[in-house]
Design a protein that fits this description.
- The radius of gyration is 16 Å and the shape is globular.
- The protein is built from six helices and ten strands; from the N terminus they run βββαβααβαββαβββα.
- By secondary structure, it is of the alpha/beta class.
- The protein is 35% helix and 26% strand.
């Protein structure tokens, strides 16, 4: 497997992605943006880029914060300070996601007509905003992501949407799920929400073990989500 970091930009902000692909495969292949959680583009996101590379795609772990800018596990104050400005300014967030989409589409190993995005936690919010921006991605997958929209109007949505959600996630209460479903239906989007019972936030992260904060790994939900992701990508790129 070939891996490297590449610099790209959103305006004056220098960003750094981690890119992975199987170099035994010849020619361009579909690309998958991987949007990180609120701690930044760290090991969890890069490992997910490598996972999709093993499936024959190009994995592109994008950077929302800037080159060399990272949060830390358990540092709620620092992580919130990094995520907050983007969560509050959805125009800025959409611009940063579209910069990543442009960067992956420009790679010679990527078929620019076959690009999707997946994101975890904060990254789930990011990929949903990419879809809301009307970006030319085939589909987006929010994995224990935040559903609530900002105050920016949606463009015509063309990306298919898959949300993998823990029903007991305190960061996304049931009323937020219902509102999101209504939003997607009003937008005439091709959408799915898969809710896992007895499941909290961050259920795909084996390091998540803080039920008091609402984050808890679930092997069953992780396994089911992995299969749903594969099925969705197979459908997008068939």
């Amino acid at each position: 497997m070939h891996t490297e970091t590449i610099e790209y930009r959103d305006g004056d902000t220098v960003l750094e992605a981690y890119v992975a692909w199987d170099d035994s495969i010849e020619g361009p292949r579909p690309g998958i943006l991987v949007a990180h959680d609120w701690t930044g583009r760290r090991d969890f996101a890069t490992s997910k880029a490598e996972e999709v590379a093993k499936q024959g795609y190009v994995g592109f772990a994008l950077d929302m914060y800037g080159k060399g800018v990272f949060g830390a596990d358990g540092d709620v104050e620092k992580n919130a300070a990094l995520m907050g400005p983007l969560a509050e300014d959805r125009t800025l967030l959409r611009g940063r996601m579209n910069a990543a989409l442009s960067a992956i589409s420009a790679l010679s190993v990527v078929d620019s007509t076959k690009v999707a995005a997946m994101g975890y936690c904060f990254g789930g919010m990011c990929v949903l905003e990419l879809a809301r921006s009307g970006a030319d991605a085939l589909g987006v997958i929010s994995i224990h992501g935040i559903f609530s929209p900002g105050d920016v109007a949606n463009e015509k949505m063309t990306a298919k949407v898959l949300c993998l959600h823990g029903h007991d996630d305190p960061m996304v209460p049931p009323e937020q799920v219902v509102a999101f479903e209504a939003e997607m239906s009003e937008a005439k989007a091709d959408w799915q929400v898969h809710a896992y019972g007895g499941t909290m936030h961050a259920f795909t992260n084996p390091a998540a073990n803080n039920p008091g904060f609402g984050t808890m790994y679930s092997p069953d939900a992780d396994r089911r989500a992995t299969q749903s992701i594969k099925n969705f990508l197979d459908e997008l790129f068939s």
